[in-house]
Write a structure and sequence with these properties.
346 residues; Endonuclease III, domain 1; 5-stranded mixed sheet; 42% helix; elongated
Length: 346
């Protein structure tokens, strides 16, 4: 099909030089795809390079401690990706002798690997004509064909996947998939694309109908919830503090944080002092409390906004779970906590 040939030709002349484009090693492709989920290339590239230095093969990654993986991931967010990455590495080493599955269907069975990632690995590493559909592909296809089906609807996902599969170059699926994604990222950009130099301008429906800015269509997300987090930064005279490991399910599972008091509304120093007097860590203990950040820190997640205050609490002694403050940087923490640690500079 002429569209696929045009995109591949454009790609050969305009593609960015990126390290994962220099290899067909499924470990490297898998690693790059997991890191770049919900992450821009400029942010993900340093993490990709760090992971390859620290874990050059799937065997190195499988043999690492989860805390080591989470620490290296710190700052990327969506930490379930890192936990799934580690779990899948273990599975590949222990159950598959370190060999990645070589087909789209088999790749889909791996934890943390969905349609997009399976398609990318299958096409790039094993030349299987499995079409990728990501945000860039949705944008290119919706504009070029003038499709207004919401891309985050069940119908939209099926429609665009089928269309991409029909367009894919059977003989060169790897370059086609990378070409259409790159085209969306560099040429058919979300805002102000330069349509005057677009090789598809003569047949682009959205350009002809002046609907570039209206496509793709996406339904509005559910209302974001609001939470109030109060982190207790305990500091003893012998320079120790307390970090707690988050257990159970959640985006910060197995990461560390300062003891937390969650409240329904914002609290004052008087309010927090009253709660601290009965807190299990501070019962019958003299303490001094002060608010670190006068302005509430709002940490925005996809499904909730965390209105956060850090309370500095000085005490004489802490219990046996306390850690030396000098060791605080060795613990994997959410970026919200990491930013505070860096700013406070203990």
């Amino acid at each position: 099909m002429i569209v696929s040939k045009t995109l591949i030709n454009w790609y050969s002349n305009n593609k960015r030089e990126l390290p994962w484009r220099q290899t067909k090693d499924p470990y490297c492709i898998w690693l790059s795809e997991i890191i770049l989920q919900q992450t821009q290339i400029k942010q993900g590239l340093p993490y990709y390079e760090s992971f390859l230095r620290e874990f050059p093969t799937v065997f190195h990654l499988a043999n690492a401690d989860e805390s080591q993986v989470l620490k290296l991931w710190q700052g990327l967010g969506y930490y379930s990706r890192a936990r799934n990455l580690h779990a899948t590495a273990k599975y590949i080493v222990e159950k598959l002798n370190g060999e990645f599955p070589s087909s789209y269907k088999e790749l889909l069975q791996l934890k943390g690997v969905g349609d997009y990632t399976a398609s990318a690995i299958a096409s790039i590493c094993f030349n299987e004509p499995a079409a990728v559909v990501d945000g860039n592909v949705y944008r290119v296809l919706s504009r070029y064909f003038g499709i207004d089906t919401p891309i985050n609807s069940t119908q939209g996902k099926k429609e665009f996947k089928l269309l991409a599969q029909q367009l894919i170059d059977i003989e060169n699926p790897a370059d086609f998939n990378q070409a259409i994604m790159e085209f969306g990222a560099v040429q058919c950009k979300p805002q102000n694309p330069n349509c005057s130099i677009c090789p598809l301008q003569d047949s682009c429906v959205a350009l002809q109908k002046s609907s570039i800015n209206q496509l793709p269509v996406k339904t509005k997300p559910n209302k974001v919830s609001k939470k109030h987090f109060n982190f207790l930064v305990l500091i003893s005279k012998d320079n120790k503090t307390i970090l707690e490991k988050r257990e159970g399910k959640g985006i910060w599972q197995n990461l560390y944080q300062f003891p937390l008091i969650e409240t329904k509304t914002a609290v004052t120093e008087k309010n927090i002092s009253k709660q601290l007097s009965t807190h299990e860590l501070l019962k019958e203990v003299d303490f001094e409390v002060s608010l670190y950040n006068d302005n509430t820190i709002i940490h925005k997640l996809s499904h909730q906004h965390l209105h956060t205050k850090f309370w500095i609490i000085h005490v004489d002694n802490l219990n046996g779970d306390a850690i030396p403050i000098d060791n605080i940087h060795s613990y994997p923490v959410p970026i919200l906590i990491g930013n505070f640690i860096d700013a406070f500079n203990f």
